């Protein structure tokens, strides 16, 4: 974040050093004046907050006294009427009703009024709402308290049982001549009537401020918004800090935030006669509006002062930077090769002279270093272009950043065509897919080696069957991040060919050219594993040439070798290309037959081989009739090892010879 801010400021500041220094002077003066002004205003706002809060609380205390007087006046009205009832005959219900209806002051001060006996029965009433028949106040807290304490009571806010409106009930006991309570005079105040406690609107702070009254339980008794009367001010968890403090007993003023998020000054005072809480809310945007209006004027003055300081600084900077301007002009001339670097060796003895001479030394050292680097790069390029190895450098986007001349010789793509292009663009998508997995490992920090072969249909047309080995070495920076990969490609075609020839020779019978015992052992184990996995049968045929010793003894070993080679050729022609024909030793041969379907098929293959061998062998000494005996072991599944299967085939061969030779014997490994 800080880096982006510095870059943004650098782009916005003027390019000239003189202009930047002037801007700095301007900003310093502006900042200093603005900070001083804001600090002064903050102190003034703090003091004003205290004074305003104190004034707000004093005004609220006056309002609380006024409300106490209003409630006392309502109580006095009831007391005067109660005192006047002492001389009245209250046994006549109609007379009581006429008396109560004649008290017009009740209609002015209260919503409804009624006279109740000590049993709670309503004897008479007055007001716009008529009570229901048989109405009884026994059990209601304000009635019971009035009778028990024999004094006037102001109830908690409630919904009137007669009107259903939110009301507060004021009571007054009626005493007889002996001072005993005879009746209770009860009158209700409608909380929805405008400003039931008097003209509180005139006492509110400012234009947007307001007063409201709530009980200790948080029930709103009076509010400018009449719909909130009798509503709880809010859940305990959502109350503002000032409101919560007031409910807990705080009296005085404080700053805070309303539940709607408005910053305001709050004042709270208890109403002595009821214990209710009178609250004042004064939004700070209005309370401090004059002070904030002054703030903009002070900031404007600071801007003007900073502008004047910037202009003065500009003139001073112009004078101080003239030598530096001359040095800059000389550097430009040197860059355009119009002056030599000797022009930087000026005789000034101040900081600019030191800068000029140091710059001369720096330029001279750089020219020497650049010459050395060019020579080194020329020698390095000469070396890399003539080694029989492809050298490349690949960046994180898998693009070639360096290609040596050997790359063009081997793959037909010049450095000009390959540099700064992706591998898929240079070698084709197929070649890139081959390299992608290895590049990912290399960019993860691993040194990777792999081999690939370029065929005739390769996109780069590099040749037929050429084998290469690639080594990827990560280029890791000081922070441990892989920023690129070096690639070294060696051609290993001849090595691979020699290796393949050695592998072939190691697995081939030198006389007949078919597989030898080593390859047979490897192939038999693999075939049995595939048979076990696929669940399809296989067979192993064990063969030898009947009376081969007699052929050797009578015709010589050379003729015997000719018979062995021709025998091997006839075996290969008699079976499928996927079947393996191998020579174990002497005249002993084996055939691995995978994927056979049935015993009948195996016998058919054996009969085919018998027939192929019976045709006369054409030797140098003349035609020779040769026969063979075949033992076949059939394998389907089970825990038979390769050695056991070969032993079963050998037993079958023994049976074929015992049956007169020139025939086939079959053994099932599952039998």
Tally of helical runs: 20
The coarse overall form would be elongated
Q: Trace the largest sheet across and list its strands.
A: 2-1-5-4-3
* Category by helix and strand content: alpha+beta
Overall helicity: 40-55%
The profile of the biggest β sheet is: 5 strands, antiparallel
Low-confidence stretches: 457-463
Radius of gyration: 57 Å
Oligomeric form? single chain
User: What's the pLDDT, averaged over the residues?
Assistant: 80
Give the CA-CA distance, first to last residue: 82 Å
**How many DSSP E strands?**
22
Strand content: 15-25%
Describe the structure.
The protein has 671 residues and is an alpha+beta fold. Helices cover 47% and strands 21% of the residues. It is built from 20 helices and 22 strands. The strands form five sheets. It has a five-stranded antiparallel sheet with strand order 2-1-5-4-3. Strands 7-6-10-9-8 form a five-stranded antiparallel sheet, sandwiched between helices. Strands 12-11-15-14-13 form a five-stranded antiparallel sheet, sandwiched between helices. A hairpin with a 2-residue loop joins strand 17 and strand 18. The two termini are 82 Å apart.
């Amino acid at each position: 974040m800080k880096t982006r801010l510095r870059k943004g400021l650098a782009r916005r500041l003027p390019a000239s050093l003189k202009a930047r220094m002037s801007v700095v002077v301007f900003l310093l003066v502006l900042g200093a004046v603005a900070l001083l002004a804001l600090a002064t205003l903050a102190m003034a706002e703090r003091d004003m907050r205290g004074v305003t809060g104190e004034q707000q609380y004093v005004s609220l205390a006056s309002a609380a006294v006024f409300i106490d007087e209003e409630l006392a006046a309502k109580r006095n009205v009831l007391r005067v009427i109660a005192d006047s009832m002492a001389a009245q005959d209250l046994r006549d219900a109609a007379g009581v009703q006429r008396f109560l209806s004649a008290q017009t002051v009740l209609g002015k001060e209260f919503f409804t009024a009624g006279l109740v006996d000590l049993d709670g029965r309503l004897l008479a009433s007055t007001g716009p709402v008529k009570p229901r028949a048989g109405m009884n106040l026994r059990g209601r807290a304000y009635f019971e308290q009035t009778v028990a304490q024999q004094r006037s009571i102001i109830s908690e806010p409630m919904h009137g049982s007669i009107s259903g409106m939110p009301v507060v009930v004021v009571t007054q006991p009626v005493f007889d001549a002996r001072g005993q309570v005879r009746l209770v005079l009860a009158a209700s105040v409608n909380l929805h009537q405008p400003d039931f406690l008097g003209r509180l609107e005139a006492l509110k702070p400012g234009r947007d401020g307001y007063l409201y009254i709530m009980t200790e339980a948080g029930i709103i008794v009076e509010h400018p918004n009449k719909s909130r009367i009798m509503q709880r001010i809010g859940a305990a968890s959502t109350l503002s800090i000032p409101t919560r403090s007031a409910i807990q007993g705080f009296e005085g003023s404080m700053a805070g935030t309303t539940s709607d998020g408005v910053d305001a000054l709050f004042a709270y005072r208890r109403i002595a006669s009821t214990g209710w809480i009178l609250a004042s809310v004064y939004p700070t945007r209005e309370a401090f509006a004059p002070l904030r209006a002054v703030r903009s004027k002070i900031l404007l003055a600071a801007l003007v002062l900073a502008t004047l300081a910037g202009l003065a600084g500009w003139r001073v900077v112009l004078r101080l930077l003239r030598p530096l301007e001359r040095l800059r002009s000389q550097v430009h001339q040197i860059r355009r090769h119009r002056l030599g670097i000797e022009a930087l060796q000026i005789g000034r003895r101040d900081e600019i002279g030191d800068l000029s001479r140091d710059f001369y030394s720096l330029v001279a050292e750089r020219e020497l270093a650049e010459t050395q680097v060019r020579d080194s790069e020329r020698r390095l390029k000469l070396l890399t272009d003539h080694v029989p190895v492809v050298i490349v450098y690949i960046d994180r986007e898998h693009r070639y950043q360096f290609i040596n001349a050997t790359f063009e010789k081997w793959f037909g793509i010049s450095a000009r065509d390959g540099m700064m292009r992706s591998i898929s663009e240079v070698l084709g998508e197929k070649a890139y897919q081959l390299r992608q997995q290895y590049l990912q490992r290399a960019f993860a920090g691993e040194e990777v080696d792999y081999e690939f072969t370029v065929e005739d249909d390769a996109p780069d047309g590099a040749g037929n069957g050429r084998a290469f080995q690639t080594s990827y070495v990560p280029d890791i920076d000081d922070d441990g991040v892989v920023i690129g990969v070096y690639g070294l490609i060696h051609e290993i075609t001849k090595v691979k060919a020699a290796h393949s020839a050695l592998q072939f020779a190691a697995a081939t019978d030198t006389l007949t050219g078919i597989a030898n015992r080593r390859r047979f052992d490897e192939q038999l184990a693999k075939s049995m594993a595939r048979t076990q996995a696929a669940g399809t049968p296989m067979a192993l045929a064990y063969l030898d040439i009947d009376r081969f010793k007699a052929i050797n003894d009578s015709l010589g070993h050379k003729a015997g070798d000719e018979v062995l080679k021709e025998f091997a050729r006839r075996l290969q022609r008699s079976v499928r290309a996927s079947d393996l024909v191998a020579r174990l030793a002497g005249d002993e041969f084996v055939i691995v037959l995978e994927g056979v379907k049935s015993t009948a098929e195996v016998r058919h293959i054996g009969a085919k081989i018998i027939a192929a061998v019976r045709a006369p062998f054409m030797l140098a000494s003349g035609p020779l009739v040769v026969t063979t005996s075949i033992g076949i072991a059939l394998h389907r599944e089970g825990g038979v090892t390769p050695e056991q299967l070969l032993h079963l085939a050998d037993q079958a061969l023994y049976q074929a010879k015992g049956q007169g030779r020139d025939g086939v014997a079959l053994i099932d490994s599952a039998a």
